[in-house]
């Protein structure tokens, strides 16, 4: 049931999702209970369950919000119409800006994966689907530079991104981002100049 025009989420649903997104990311999914979300969103339990039948549905909606935000970053980088290497640099800059933003606590998807180890969990599947999209996006960009070695180079990029996301909330984020962006530049240089097979021939 929608309280506003067809196709628009209700105000209550938006408050619930915004509250859950903020709390899940800042404090962890399992650490935040339904009662806390209901209280801070200022809705009733009945309202929550009308929009989200269970907590898992709310978690999936939260991850979908993060996924859509990251796809938006990628779309912006693509829309600039830059050469593939510069598009990857623009995407990397967006990642670095996120790491340096207030309240950064790492990758929402890696955090969720740590809390949902069951490979059959819908939450874990959502994490893997997002990561597959990201890997395919980077692979597509690298293949525009040269097709040989695009996938291993993309895996290398994703590993560097994961390392930066993990370290960015533990150490000086400025230094972490400088290291990450230098690594991206070096990866692109090596990739464009050679038949890339991965770090140390992997």
What does this structure look like?
Residues 1-7 have low confidence and may be disordered. This protein has 202 residues and is mainly alpha-helical. Helices cover 71% and strands 0% of the residues. The chain folds into two domains: 1-53, Arc Repressor Mutant, subunit A; 57-197, Tetracycline Repressor, domain 2. The chain starts with 10 loop residues before the first helix and ends in a 9-residue tail after the last helix. It contains nine helices and no strands. Helix 4 runs parallel beside helix 7, helix 5 packs antiparallel against helix 9 (173-193) and helix 6 (108-115) packs antiparallel against helix 7 (122-145). The longest helix has 25 residues, at 55-79.
CATH class label of the largest domain: Mainly Alpha
Average pLDDT metric: 91
Uncertain stretches of 5 or more adjacent residues: 1-7
Total individual domains: 2
- Find the count of extended strands (DSSP E, 2+ residues): 0
Beta fraction: under 5%
CATH superfamily of the largest domain: Tetracycline Repressor, domain 2
Would you spell out the secondary-structure blueprint of this structure?
Blueprint: H1 11-27, H2 34-41, H3 45-51, H4 55-79, H5 84-99, H6 108-115, H7 122-145, H8 150-167, H9 173-193
Highlighted features:
single chain, 202 residues, mainly alpha, Arc Repressor Mutant, subunit A, Tetracycline Repressor, domain 2, 0% strand, disordered N terminus
């Amino acid at each position: 049931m929608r309280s506003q025009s067809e196709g628009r989420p209700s105000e209550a649903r938006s408050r619930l999702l915004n509250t859950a997104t903020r709390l899940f990311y800042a404090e962890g999914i399992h650490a935040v209970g339904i009662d806390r979300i209901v209280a801070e969103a200022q809705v009733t339990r009945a309202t929550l369950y009308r929009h989200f039948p269970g907590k898992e549905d709310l978690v999936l909606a939260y991850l979908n919000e993060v996924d859509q935000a990251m796809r938006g970053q990628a779309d912006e980088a693509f829309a600039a119409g830059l050469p593939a290497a510069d598009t990857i640099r623009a995407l990397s800059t967006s990642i670095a800006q996120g790491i340096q933003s207030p309240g950064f606590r790492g990758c929402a998807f890696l955090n969720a994966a740590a809390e949902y180890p069951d490979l059959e969990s819908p939450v874990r599947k959502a994490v893997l689907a997002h990561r597959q999209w990201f890997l395919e996006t980077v692979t597509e960009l690298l293949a525009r530079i040269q097709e040989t070695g695009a996938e291993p180079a993309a895996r290398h990029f994703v590993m560097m991104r994961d390392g930066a996301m993990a370290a960015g909330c533990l150490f000086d984020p400025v230094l972490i981002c400088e290291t990450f962006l230098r690594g991206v530049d070096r990866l692109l240089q090596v990739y464009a100049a050679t038949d890339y097979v991965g770090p140390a021939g992997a």
